[in-house]
Amino acid sequence: VQLQASGGGLVQPGGSLRLSCAASGSIFSINSMAWYRQAEGRQRELVAFIGSGGGNTNYADSVKGRFTISRNNDRNTVYLQMNSLKPDDTAVYYCNVEVQQTRSAWTRLNVWGQGTQVTVSS
Fold first, then answer.
1. Where on the phi/psi map is residue 60: left (φ > 0), alpha (ψ -120 to 50), or beta?
2. Beta partners for 100?
3. Are 91 and 39 contacting, i.e. CB atoms less than 8 angstroms apart?
4. Measured between alpha carbons, how far is 47 from 12 in angstroms, rounded to an integer?
5. What is the pLDDT of residues 71-102, one digit of tens each?
6. What region does 26 belong to: left with phi over 0, alpha with psi -120 to 50, or beta?
7. N or C: which end of the chain has fewer CB within 10 A?
8. What contacts 29, CB < 8 A, 6 or more positions away?
9. What torsion, rounded to 10 degrees, do the Cα atoms 60, 29, 54, 120 define?
10. CA distance 20 to 61
């Protein structure tokens, strides 16, 4: 199973970006999907989480009201819409999914994407 993240880049403060992360490979179902970020010199932190049905979402306090996580189960893709970006949002963003490869729960995998750089600067 592989994750391909895209959508990062350089944006001015107050701008917007939309990250995408598509899962491919041997997938029966995808449970939770999430975005993490890691700024230089800091630990990786959870930014946003979405449950399997899409109705259960959670956000870090620092991004509430500015970021929106969503998913398209037909495309095995998770998105992160980031608005009102701040310099403190600068980091490498990683997607993370829990994949189940067959009907058996024993085939669950936790998979990380390769990361995409987001830089917020004027």
1. beta
2. 29, 108
3. yes
4. 20
5. 999 999 999 999 999 999 999 999 999 999 99
6. beta
7. C
8. 52, 99, 100
9. 40
10. 21
**Among all chains, which residue has been given the structure tokens 């944006």?**
11
Exposed, middle or buried: residue 106 (CB in 10 Å: 0-12, 13-18, 19+)? exposed
Whole-Å CA distances, 87 to 12, 15, 59: 8, 11, 18
pLDDT score, position 92: 98
Among left, alpha and beta (phi > 0; psi -120 to 50; other), residue 65 is left
Give me the chain's average pLDDT, please.
95
Are 79 and 70 within 8 A, CB to CB? yes
